[in-house]
């Protein structure tokens, strides 16, 4: 009987079956390139250590230890990324699950830098909470640092994923800590927890949609790998592929905050603690656009390019229109930035209309859709971090953050230095020349123009003007309205002062001398395949 056959007979039978089917059916061990994986391992290890310190270290020292641990982890990760990039350590890990190429390194380094900026706001926020609450240790929200590290770990995987299963795993790793972070505003716990619940429930729906799309795509193509999906789809597949791929893109649109998956953005931006909002606003958007760019470039079959161009173009146009028009009606600065972020998502999506068209030449420099998007995201990130840093300074009579327009009336006149910095950020949002935002819009709009989508550029320019009206309307309140008697601006601590000064200077510097940024990013706009 078969059950009583000796082990050698089983081995012989398996060998004969393997020879009969050929060597192609023999599974090979994946290539484990640990040099590429080191930055992620450092980040994950630091996050785990931070969790241990959260449980082991007691008293006021816990917050200090957490800040030191997180800072050291971020600097070490950034150092490894810079070294790998400089040494040209490019390639794949685990049979193509993750790819280390120039776009991945650039976006991962940008994620680290913007997270460092957000951490400055975290430190100031938690220390201020503790001081104003009488120094109670319970107010030292040191757990936010470890949660932010775990979310960042998911983000660096997200931008490097070339496999749908890895994409979904990274999506969940980056999302789950964010749901908790959004609920940690101890000034307004009810509003914060409501925002967290909305974000979680809608996030679960988006994750389910993404997972269902992955299942449909695998069923239609027989693979999770991006390039294998494109090759299988070129040979002709059933309608399940289009539906599945559309669901995956819908899940990414949720993280980007693009229409029609934007409904969480205003409430979450307003309800979450401002440092968390700053972290989400740029880091999540940067990671999601990185993942979307890689997916569109590598997984879209050539015979379906025009179809997906149309899908992206429509989503871009609708997001621009909705964000710009609804922003005009806002009377809360955080909701204004939230709706403007929806519009910015549309502007960046416009660049992805040319994601399959290769390299374009703009002002003598070669750029791709991905490099144009990175330039825009860098400009957007600088202005966003700086703007939210200023938001943390305006308080009402109870010491809570005041974000309604009435509380900001006359703030620019009373505090000209802070007001000038805020003007720089909003001019950059509007894409005014000599700011980083102008360079970002120029890069993002040049790609669809050169790709033959001139109508989208015209729409983007018109809606940029509409969005600019919303920004200038708020600046008018800041500088020309009668100052509010119930609001004040607290003296910025050192960390906030550094963030405001650095982001304002870099926003202007990038607008005046853009060549160095575009040159750096233009060399990192092509995805590695293999």
Automatic annotation (TrEMBL):
Enzyme Commission number, as recorded: 7.1.1.-
Pfam families: Proton_antipo_M (PF00361)
TM stretches of this protein: 32-53, 65-85, 105-123, 144-161, 167-187, 199-221, 241-264, 276-296, 308-329, 336-353, 373-394, 415-434, 454-474, 495-518
UniProt enzyme class: translocase
Membrane topology (UniProt): Multi-pass membrane protein
Recorded family membership: Belongs to the complex I subunit 2 family.
Protein name as it appears in the record: NADH-quinone oxidoreductase subunit N
Keyword Aminoacyl-tRNA synthetase: no
GO-annotated biological processes: ATP synthesis coupled electron transport
């Amino acid at each position: 009987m078969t059950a009583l056959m000796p082990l050698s007979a089983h081995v012989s039978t398996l060998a004969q079956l393997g020879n009969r089917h050929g060597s192609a059916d023999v599974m090979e061990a994946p290539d484990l390139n640990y040099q590429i994986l080191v930055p992620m391992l450092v980040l994950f290890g630091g996050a785990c250590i931070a969790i241990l310190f959260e449980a082991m270290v007691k008293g006021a020292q816990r917050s200090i230890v957490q800040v030191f641990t997180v800072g050291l982890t971020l600097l070490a990760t950034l150092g490894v990324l810079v070294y790998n990039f400089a040494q040209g350590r490019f390639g794949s890990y685990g049979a193509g699950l993750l790819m280390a190429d120039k776009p991945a390194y650039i976006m991962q380094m940008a994620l680290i830098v913007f997270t460092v900026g957000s951490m400055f706001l975290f430190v100031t926020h938690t220390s201020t909470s503790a001081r104003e609450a009488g120094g109670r240790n319970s107010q030292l929200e040191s757990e936010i640092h470890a949660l932010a590290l775990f979310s960042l770990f998911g983000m660096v995987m997200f931008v490097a994923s070339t496999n749908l299963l890895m994409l979904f795993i990274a999506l969940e790793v980056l999302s789950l800590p964010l749901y908790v972070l959004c609920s940690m505003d101890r000034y307004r716990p009810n509003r914060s927890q409501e925002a967290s619940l909305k974000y979680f429930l809608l996030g679960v729906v988006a994750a389910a949609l993404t997972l269902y799309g992955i299942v449909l795509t695998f069923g239609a193509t027989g693979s999770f790998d991006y390039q294998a999906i494109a090759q299988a789809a070129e040979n002709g597949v059933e309608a399940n592929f289009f539906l599945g791929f559309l669901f995956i893109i819908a899940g990414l649109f949720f993280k980007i905050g693009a229409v029609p998956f934007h409904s969480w953005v205003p409430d979450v931006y307003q309800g979450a603690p401002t440092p968390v909002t700053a972290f989400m606003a740029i880091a999540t958007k940067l990671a999601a656009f990185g993942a979307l760019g890689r997916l569109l470039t590598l997984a879209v079959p050539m015979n379906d390019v025009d179809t997906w161009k149309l899908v992206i173009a429509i989503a871009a146009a609708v997001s621009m229109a909705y964000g710009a028009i609804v922003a005009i009606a806002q009377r809360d600065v955080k909701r204004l930035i939230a709706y403007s972020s929806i519009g910015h998502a549309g502007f960046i999506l416009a660049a992805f209309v040319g994601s399959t068209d290769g390299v374009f030449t703009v002002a003598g420099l070669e750029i791709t859709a991905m490099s144009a998007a990175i330039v825009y995201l860098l400009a957007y990130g600088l202005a966003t971090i700086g703007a939210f840093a200023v938001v943390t300074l305006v308080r009402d009579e109870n010491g809570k953050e005041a974000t309604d327009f009435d509380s900001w009336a006359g703030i620019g006149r009373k505090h000209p230095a802070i007001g000038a910095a805020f003007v720089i950020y909003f001019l950059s949002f509007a894409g005014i020349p000599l700011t980083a935002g102008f360079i970002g819009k120029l890069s993002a709009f040049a790609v669809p123009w050169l790709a033959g989508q001139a109508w989208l550029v015209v729409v983007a320019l018109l809606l940029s003007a509409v969005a600019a009206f919303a920004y200038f309307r708020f600046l008018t309140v800041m500088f020309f309205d009668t100052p509010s008697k119930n609001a004040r601006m607290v003296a910025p601590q050192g960390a906030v002062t550094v963030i405001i000064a650095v982001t304002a200077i870099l926003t202007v510097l990038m607008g005046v001398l853009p060549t160095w940024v575009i040159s750096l990013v233009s060399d990192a706009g092509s995805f590695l395949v293999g």
